[in-house]
Design brief:
Mean pLDDT: 94
CATH architecture of the largest domain: 3-Layer(aba) Sandwich
Helix content: 25-40%
Bound molecules: glyoxylic acid, manganese (II) ion
Largest sheet: 9 strands, mixed
CATH topology of the largest domain: Aminopeptidase
Radius of gyration: 22 Å
Amino acid sequence: MSLTVRIDRLRRDLEQVSRFGATAAGGVSRTSFSAADRQVREWLAGAAAQAGLTIRTDGIGNVFLRVDGGEVGGRDGGEVGGGDGAPVWTGSHLDSVPDGGALDGALGSLAALEVARRLVEERVPVRRPVEVVVFADEEGSYHHLCGSTGLVRNYSADELSGLRGRDGDRLVDALAGMGWDPAAATRTAVRPGAVHAFVELHIEQGPILEARNAQIGVVTGIVGLGGGELVFTGRQDHAGTTPMRLRQDPLRGAAELVTRLPELAASVSQAAVATCGIVSVQPGAGNVVPETCRLQLDFRDPDRDRLLALEQAIVAAAEQAAGRHQLRVSYHRDSITDPVALDPRMQDLVESTATRLGLRTLRMPSGAGHDAQNLATLAPTGMIFVPSVAGRSHSPAELTTWDDVENGGNVLLAVVHALATE
Ligand code: GLV
Ligand code: MN
Ligand code: MN
């Protein structure tokens, strides 16, 4: 028996799923709990039924597909098997950033589905259950790595009720809109040891594999992520009558801060990055000097201390800019996700499996965040990267060749098989 994925079927699945939330620009907008997300969840339920997998959704919206009829996840606080019967988890996410690509998250989710199908079809004997996990809101519309965070710790009701999406909507309303009880979203954590191992296939989302002519990235660790909001407050005035020198325009302070981000990141480390991906001015009219300007910040570094130093440097620079332009500024941290090193044994397993399949490998860190960094606190965790053409991602330009998709799927299948027979 040759245990390989069926690339024709995986390709068809990826193409079908890319239609849910397809944008005019050729990308995908599939925020968790949106209409497009409902469509993809419905599609997934159909695919699971066809493959003979049971499906279960926990209180925060993580979906589990399982080969047998056992209980998984924790919509009602239930725990995964544990002990010798602890399952192998594999999966990723099906939500996307606004106008993102068709592969970020979808590849690892649908390849995991294909892995489960192949194990069932070929009646491959496994010692442990294999579960496909599709994490909710990985892209953090409501909270960074929202669904997987709910697996490693329970959200409190207070925290949940304070979480709002990019559009300002409340997470608890979004959950209720899905027909779910928001109270169940406070009971999703699984205990450490309940998962035997987790492995995620993902596109690299950067240029390194392509530049180094490698086919499979063996991920060594995942960057630390910080997120927060800066609000500059000035004075709302008439755009025609207020002399330039008398204005307290909050956008001036915000603009000064944004132009300093490269220098602030470089002051911390060569690997540090800082991004402002959302700017909004209020009240928002062409003929009004704004009262406030909000900046949504994302900052990253592979080292936790340097990550916190970068946050401090940004806040200090914002205060300086505010002082220069007679503004006030406040900062609210949304979240800090610690960097993680991935399990050395999982790295070895991914590397030796890919080498056995005749593929060129490269060990590399991940600059993107992944649910795997939460899972790494629960179970031995590994990640498999495949090349991104021209390193493009979080953009409709995201692309990976079908050969690389097939290679990644085959490495994932062999790794999951090895873990499930331990
Ligand atoms: C997820 O894609 C992230 O790196 O933010
Ligand atoms: Mn992403
Ligand atoms: Mn992703």
